[in-house]
Design brief:
Distance between the termini: 73 Å
Order of helices and strands: HHH
Shape: rod-shaped
Oligomer: single chain
Helix content: 55-70%
Radius of gyration: 25 Å
Number of strands: 0
Structural class: mainly alpha
Largest sheet: none
Strand content: under 5%
Number of helices: 3
Length: 62
């Protein structure tokens, strides 16, 4: 019934539903990102500083 009321008034209900869907998904993603604790990012923040390959690797053919 709401669809027919919106059709009569000339409002693009498909665009409104897309906007509402985007807002809901964006809000959920923000809650998920900011809801995580700082401890969960401890390994990720050290990744650029840790070298996974040692400089004196004996298996290195160079």
């Amino acid at each position: 019934m709401a669809k027919y009321l919106l059709a009569e008034s000339g409002i693009n209900w498909l665009a409104i539903m897309a906007l509402i869907t985007f807002f809901i998904i964006f809000s959920i993603s923000l809650v998920m990102v900011f809801g995580r604790g700082r401890r969960s990012y401890a390994e990720v923040e050290q990744q650029p500083l840790n070298d996974s390959y040692p400089l004196n690797d004996k298996n290195n053919p160079l």
